[in-house]
Design brief:
Layout: E1 5-10, E2 14-19, E3 28-32, E4 36-39, E5 59-60, E6 68-69, H1 72-91, H2 99-110, H3 132-149, H4 170-180, E7 182-185, E8 191-196, E9 204-205, E10 211-216, E11 219-224, E12 235-236, H5 245-256, H6 263-267, H7 271-274, H8 279-297, H9 301-315, H10 324-340, H11 343-360, H12 366-381, H13 385-402, H14 408-427
EC number: 2.1.1.354
Enzyme class: transferase
GO molecular function: histone H3K4 trimethyltransferase activity; zinc ion binding
Length: 428
């Protein structure tokens, strides 16, 4: 473990991590590989199941027909982990288990000697505080895990002797996985998989955290986004902070079984702004959200753009851009325009989101940095080179803190800035 952090008991929260020395903003606090990880089902066809990089064309495992790889090298390197999983996947075709079930199985296959501050046995399952409805759902996942493992391990008692006693109960194991796994994202913060990082499960939540987690493949980097004093607790945000307090609290209570009492939640400092404008008008945006999410899931980009334009035309003048639901509508419009190749419209919508992102994701926040980079790419493509360079510079000031100078996304950003400088020099 990195020498600047240690495990401790956080008052009112249980286990936690704290600094043992001063940590500067932008400093890499800790890096970790997962005990186990798997690509999300919805990303399985365009993400390598070994290195977690995205590609349009991938090799497919000829046996299970689910795992995909960049090339033969990745496929061979993945085989020791995939070997047992492959048999399990073939045994239940055409069914495919959920991400959490596949991750739980990979944890069982991976268990061996590991040096962690927080053992799998110590991870909370929160079974005692779950509602009966949630327990029923978890029981179904536990049954699927047993069915999935039947080819390799007819009972969990036959697992390695290193499997902790509490984890031999499928229900308890699934509870530990659901409550402690992390979503693995690419450099642009898009979900690509799930993984269990035992020591970093000690990190507690805050809606205004002092650290962020970014990934390179499956390697997790914990970076400080504020100056941290010795003995200060290290915190991250478990959820998307772009929500109302009651929504955030409900999500945290349902998934992680605690009520958030951080400063942002107690002060409700952004709720009034998020609901600004005429309620009758912004409710049109809110009521359209389920339809918007459905169209995005279907990749029905033209109809999604039509919905956004209709909504913004009908209610837009009575609702400021800072309204939460209007912002989500504009974000969806950017996505749709990019997918449809409507670059000018994408840029117009994207530029409107930037001041609002700055408001809700104070610098340095990776979400704001990634949005700036996205807008900069649109400006560059449309040959607004001076504007693009300025936007890329703003993004770089954020990402060098949140991602670090050596992260592939930061490197790409530096190359984009250099391209802009060269183009501007040639035009003079």
């Amino acid at each position: 473990m990195a020498p600047k952090v240690e495990r401790f008991v956080s008052p009112g929260k249980g286990n936690g991590l704290r600094a043992t020395a001063s940590i500067r903003r932008g400093e890499l606090v800790y890096s970790a590989d997962p005990l186990a990880a798997c690509v999300s089902l919805k990303q399985s066809k365009n993400t390598c199941h070994h290195c977690f990089s995205r590609h349009e064309t991938l090799l497919r495992c000829s046996q299970c027909k689910m795992a995909h790889y960049c090339n033969i090298t990745c496929q061979k390197q993945a085989w020791p982990v995939h070997k047992s999983e492959c048999k399990c996947l073939r045994s239940i075709l055409p069914r495919i288990p959920t991400d959490s079930v596949r991750l739980a199985a990979r944890i069982i296959f991976a268990l061996g000697s590991s040096e962690e501050l927080y053992s799998l046995e110590e991870h909370e399952s929160h079974l005692s505080s779950m509602s009966e409805q949630k327990k029923e759902g978890l029981s179904q996942l536990a049954s699927m895990l047993q069915l999935y493992l039947q080819q390799e391990l007819p009972t969990l008692d036959q697992a390695s002797s290193s499997l902790p006693p509490s984890c031999r109960d499928p229900l308890c194991l699934m509870g530990k996985v659901i409550c402690n796994c992390f979503t693995i994202s690419d450099g642009e913060l898009q979900e690509i998989g799930v993984g269990l990082y035992p020591s970093l499960s000690l990190l507690n939540h805050d809606c205004g955290p002092n650290c962020v987690m970014v990934f390179e493949g499956t390697k997790l980097h914990l970076r400080a986004v504020k100056d941290i004093k010795s003995s200060d607790e290290l915190t991250v945000s478990y959820i998307d902070s772009l929500e109302l307090v009651d929504v955030r609290r409900k999500q945290l209570e349902e998934q992680y079984h605690f009520t958030c009492t951080c400063h942002r939640c107690n002060s409700r400092d952004k709720d009034v702004i998020m609901l600004s404008g005429e309620e009758a008008a912004w409710r049109l945006f809110k009521d359209a959200m389920p339809r918007l999410d459905g169209l995005r899931a279907e990749s029905n980009w033209q109809e999604l753009l039509n919905l956004c334009k209709r909504s913004l035309s009908t209610a837009g003048d009575d609702v400021p851009d800072e309204n939460l639901y209007k912002l989500k509508m504009m974000d969806a419009a950017v996505d749709a325009c990019v997918q449809l190749g409507l670059w000018g419209e994408a840029l117009a919508f994207g530029l409107r989101t930037l001041p609002v992102y700055r408001l809700y994701f104070p610098d340095p926040h990776p979400v704001h940095g990634v949005q700036l980079m996205r807008v900069g790419k649109l400006q560059h493509y449309l040959e607004h080179v001076t504007d693009a360079l300025d936007t890329f510079r703003q993004a770089f000031e954020i990402l060098k803190v949140t991602h670090g100078d050596t992260h592939p996304l930061t490197y790409e950003l530096k190359m984009k800035m250099e391209e802009c400088r060269c183009e501007l020099n040639q035009s003079q």
